[in-house]
Amino acid sequence: xxxxxxxxxxxxxxxxxxxxxxxxxxxxxxxxxxxxxxxxxxxxxxxxxxxxxxxxxxxxxxxxxxxxxxxxxxxxxxxxxxxxxxxxxxxxxxxxxxxxxxxxxxxxxxxxxxxxxxxxxxxxxxxxxxxxxxxxxxxxxxxxxxxxxxxxxxxxxxxxxxxxxxxxxxxxxxxxxxxxxxxxxxxxxxxxxxxxxxxxxxxxxxxxxxxxxxxxxxxxxxxxxxxxxxxxxxxxxxxxxxxxxxxxxxxxxxxxxxxxxxxxxxxxxxxxxxxxxxx
Length: 279
Fold this sequence. Notes:
Elements lengths: L1 H36 L21 H9 L2 H32 L5 H9 L6 H15 L5 H5 L6 H12 L4 H8 L4 H12 L1 H17 L2 H6 L8 H9 L7 H21 L1 H10 L5
Helix pairs in contact: 1-13, 2-13, 3-7, 3-10, 3-12, 7-10, 8-9, 10-14, 12-13
């Protein structure tokens, strides 16, 4: 019995050490980026390279705010990300409820067609979207960036899989009490799918926050640029700006994503694991 206990502990220790090694290995690029953002630009190209900066040059972060209107880019990114995430979660929850809990003709075919949207690259749709936006007067507007982000087939799939694990007796009990589909979704099924909904919200926020391609095509005015697009202004013409200042801007733009992921990590892991139980 004792040998078995020691063997299990040894396996657990080895697996934990491997997990720590992989985690540190994956964090190295981020740590190098953080170290470079705190050093003088000339020290970034010294040989042999030094991981830790010789002098912590905080001025790089000050220069980011001096060279570009960073607060304006951050506000634009938050507006686009929050609005698109909220609406996408509402649309995703309603669509997933219809696919998971209701019976209607052609449901499976429609669901397959919806998932096929995951195989279509953004680059193939941007030209038709641009031409349509030009006719509607939505080019160079924040609404134009938000609209393509409102539908997420992956989010619908995750929510649908999660809702499929909930017994339909809850729906029947709600109908006996006189509740309609919308009330069942918002008062019964919705609160039970909180982990999956947080997963969809985190994925949506990260996707919209990091979206570069659509704003690059649709936005012309600097005061409407989002943060990823604004970073190109920081890099300067022909990329002649300081690498330390650029990486300082990248670190600043990553902080909201780290906060959101840390806050929703518990639900994120639970939602991902449970949404794959039933397929």
